[in-house]
Amino acid sequence: MRILVARCTVEYAGRLTARLPEANRVIMVKADGAVLVHADGGSYKPLNWMSAPCSLLASHDESGVIVWTVSNKAAETLEIRILEVLADVEHDLGPDPGLVKDGVEAHLQELLALHVHTLGAGWSLIRREHPTPIGPVDLLCRDANGTTVAVEVKRRGEIDGVEQLTRYLDLLNRDALLAPVRGVFAAQQIRPQARTLAEDRGIRCVVLDYEALRGADDPSWRLF
Amino acid sequence: MRILVARCTVEYAGRLTARLPEANRVIMVKADGAVLVHADGGSYKPLNWMSAPCSLLASHDESGVIVWTVSNKAAETLEIRILEVLADVEHDLGPDPGLVKDGVEAHLQELLALHVHTLGAGWSLIRREHPTPIGPVDLLCRDANGTTVAVEVKRRGEIDGVEQLTRYLDLLNRDALLAPVRGVFAAQQIRPQARTLAEDRGIRCVVLDYEALRGADDPSWRLF
DNA sequence: CCGTAAATGTCGTCG
DNA sequence: CGACGACGTTTACGG
Fold it and tell me: Are residues B85 and B185 located together in one domain of the fold?
């Protein structure tokens, strides 16, 4: 990893064309070749960048200014003109063991599969990731009346998720063995517009409590 | 902007829980308070981060290890334990003039609005960004027969875009003054699944040529 | 390698 | 401030 602090201009040409006027910025060159140009503000997204794999060619223009030309297989280019170097450090960090995550959608789906009764008394799970030609349905259940229910699980429920569930329902309802299939849209948070769309289509919305679902797994809960 | 190269562990607790085992990494602290933890590989996304606004509290644990606790209004926390500092540089970069872009969807829509005839002879533009209760239709046109056409413009045409256009069409067709309204899905690239879904719904797909549209603006073209 | 869905998405814009 | 759509989305996961 090489880190430059430098006064520079940057031009990107590829999927779009973008230009950065002269200013002080941080330029990171990672061991895999990736190049990031960061300003002293903004979130984690660089102002401009090039992802690995790519190659860096260092040269000079006619007036002696350092020019780094970074390019990749797709002929995208990032041209950095380095006008003044304020700092330049290099370190070999070695490989990273990587991030361990918890609490994402897969986990939420797993917990809900274990506790489908939170969707209604007498409900049972038919299967998780029920395959269809257009993708897997998160949970396929049977309610107390024996009616099939397709459940779409999201961390945040938005319109896209309702559309996704709608496509599944359209398809599942063509299967005479399953039809009629009802829908449940289950999420930790459901946006008003998504709720409106869902309910307008006869899809029930359920707000999930991740802590409670996880707590239901915790043996200490069973003492009460 | 302060940049540390350090052996560290990181823990994030907030929208999810995530942990980084001990390794050498780069820690950037931006002037606005944002903190990024980068490995020596991977694209521009940090392994872990906290966006501004947030506050950083530096302290030590019982064994003298430096602990940075970064937290924000939403009670998300990022805890960085710094076991060894390999480098530590700080620079005030000043404000950034920002990025100038070209070639994004807004530009594509603008160009197509100027040249609706590329969609068909005798077509005319009724208006851009035609408002509806569920959002603006990119282009509302009239074809050679006088039929109203809603055009959705995308850089890359995927299923989401077809769903979006479908919602607009459903709504526009309830307006007796406009109905019947047909749909055109226009994009630089259209994914097969999106094309299939669109055509199944009677929506015409048009692949846009950005260079040609831009060239049509170029006076030099008019010489031929 | 293509295609789809998820993301601590982030970022602008508009109400 | 919330809702919504675009993004050089990136990234992970299956066929």
Answer: no
| Cβ-based burial of B173 (10 A; exposed 0-12, middle 13-18, buried ≥19) | middle
Closest residue in A to B31 (Cα–Cα) = A40
Please, are residues A47 and A10 in contact by the beta-carbon 8 Å criterion? Answer: yes
CA quadruple B114, B193, A150, A107: dihedral positive or negative?
negative
The residue range of the domain holding B174 is 105-221
Pair (B60, B29) in one structural domain: yes
Strand C lies under 7 A from the Cβ of residue A105:
yes
Q: How far is A27 from chain B (nearest CA, A)?
A: 11
- Does nucleic acid strand C have an atom less than 7 angstroms from the CB of A224? no
Secondary structure class of B183 (helix, strand, coil): strand
Residue A196 forms part of a structural domain = yes
Question: Are B94 and A40 an interchain contact pair (Cβ–Cβ within 8 Å)?
Answer: yes
Average pLDDT value for residue range B109-138: 88
Q: What is the pLDDT of residue A223?
A: 41
User: CA-CA distances (angstroms) from residue A16 to B18, B44, B99, B109?
Assistant: 34, 17, 12, 15
By CB atoms closer than 10 A (0-12, 13-18, 19+), residue B102 is: exposed
Q: Is A3's CB within 8 Å of B26's CB?
A: yes
| Degrees, nearest 5: CA angle B141-B143-B144 | 150
Report the CATH number at residue A132: 3.40.1350.10
pTM over 0.90: no
Q: What is the pLDDT of residues B143-178, one digit of tens each?
A: 999 999 999 998 888 888 888 898 889 888 988 988
B196 vs B61, more confident: B61
C-beta of residue B86 within 8 angstroms of C-beta of residue B24: yes
Q: Which of A3, A19, A39 sits opposite B100 (nearest CB)?
A: A19
Contact A97 B30 (CB under 8 A): no
Q: Could you tell me the distance in Å between the CA of residue A107 and the C1' of nucleotide D12?
A: 15
Contacts of B160 in chain A (CB under 8 A): 160, 163
Contacts of B35 in chain A (CB under 8 A): none
